[in-house]
Amino acid sequence: MIKKLRIKIIATSLAAIFILLAGIIAIINIINFTMVANDADVILEMIEIGKGQFGTSLRPPEERQDNKDQLGPNSPEIEFSTRYFTYAFNDKGEVKQIAYRMSAYSEEEAQEWAVKLKNGNSRQGWTKSSYRYKVYNIGNDTYVTVIDQGRELGPSYRVLWISLIWICLGLIIAFIVLLVLSKKFVRPIEESNKKQENFVTEASNELKNPLTVIALENAQLSESKENYESTSAIDKQLKKLFALTVALDKLSTTKKNKYKEKSINLSELISKEIDAYSKKFEENNILVNKQINENVYCFGDEDMLQEMLYEIFENVYYFAKSKFTASLSDNNSRISIVFENDADNLPTGDLDRIFERFYKGSESNGKGLGLSVVKEIVSIHNGKVMAQSKEGIFSLKIEL
Fold it and tell me: Residue 133 forms beta bridges with which residues?
């Protein structure tokens, strides 16, 4: 239980940290790439205004004094640094080169590329990962301009990779910190569990002696007919208390018992235990349905597994209305055991609490320890047990 709780704390915390970091980094990178795209669109608009180019000749320095300190697309150097090409298509589909300032692709490749973009569905966007394009009309002609934004995208991709690396490093650091701190988080619960276990052991031992004395005294008093009514009531309560001490003993000794592992034919064990319990099921008119695969073996402690089945069948005996189904199957080295029975007033919501010590449903007359013993035994066998209730059917699934 403590181990699972630590795993849950670590997993939940890491998930929250990952979502937070991923959200922040995603926003930063989206803004970053959006700004690069917006800058590229400004340059494309400038080229569109120039009818496919920045101008027939580059402006002399004296004409660029008013914006010489500007950055990005407004920089006076943008005309010199931008690598781009523009092709125009008339209404007959004839192509004409307007501008070609690119070294990565030949003029023939650029023209073929422009044709594909002109015939595409989009009028503006990214092409070949680092090139921004725009398809626009001037008069009756269609223009296609493509600009190289690889240099501008380089820093953005570096930021992206650095962000991903920091996410990984952040999660590793958070995992190490949580691994250490989670011990402190669960320590109060661990101490509480130990106190509860000690209480169960001490209560079981302390109850036995006085109960035995009371039982002997009551037996002597019952010999007198005058005391019969009173002693019968006491005897009834004594039986309940003795049953409680037995249950407490089971709970306290399950962990202490040495685990005696051997190969067990689980198919035979479950069938045999159901047959041994068949008379009690018949008393309550419970129809039993066995769906047991043959020759399903597991490694485990046979005595513990018998005790587990006893506690489950006791539960079925007291709560089942009319039917009980037991199924056993194995798949990929995992064994699945499912017990189902119909019942009234089934609990809803989180059913993990039914495995807690001393948990009792509103209709229960038990001690609230049976399913705690089941969970303890399953845990010792490195398995897991789950409970479910749906449409009047209570289901207990065990995986080994």
Answer: 125, 146
The DSSP bridge partners found for residue 288 are: 324
Distance CA 362, CA 346 (A): 10
* CA 350/CA 294 separation, integer angstroms: 34
Instruction: Quick: pLDDT tens for 342-395.
Output: 888 776 665 777 777 655 555 555 555 678 788 888 888 888 888 888 888 888
DSSP state of 259: -
Sign of torsion, CA 50 137 91 124?
Answer: positive
Nearest 5°: the CA angle 219, 221, 227 is: 120
pLDDT single digits (tens) 176-224:
998 888 888 777 766 776 766 666 666 666 666 676 767 776 676 766 6
Alpha-carbon gap, residue 294 to 271, rounded angstroms: 10
CA distance 260 to 163: 52
251, 369 contact by CB (below 8 A): yes
Q: Which residues are within 8 A (CB) of 264 and not within 5 positions of it... i.e. 6 or more apart?
A: 297, 298, 299, 300, 302, 305
Whether the Cβ atoms of residue 362 and residue 345 lie closer than 8 Å to each other? yes
**CA 114, CA 145: separation in Å to the nearest integer?**
8
Please, are residues 130 and 146 in contact by the beta-carbon 8 Å criterion?
Answer: no
Cα–Cα distance for residue pair 32/157, rounded to 1 Å: 9
Global pTM value: 0.52
- Token pair 């479910």 in the structure block, residue: 388
Instruction: Write the DSSP symbol of residue 276.
Output: H
What contacts 231, CB < 8 A, 6 or more positions away? 218, 221, 222
Task: Provide DSSP, 296-355.
Answer: -EEEE-HHHHHHHHHHHHHHHHHH-SSEEEEEEEEETTEEEEEEEEE-SS---S-GGGGG
Sequence-distant (6+) residues with CB within 8 A of 287 are 322, 323, 324
CATH number at 258-399: 3.30.565.10
Strand blocks (E) in the chain = 84-89, 95-101, 124-127, 131-138, 141-148, 262-265, 287-292, 297-300, 323-331, 334-342, 384-390, 393-399
Distance separating alpha carbons of residues 353 and 358, to the nearest angstrom: 10
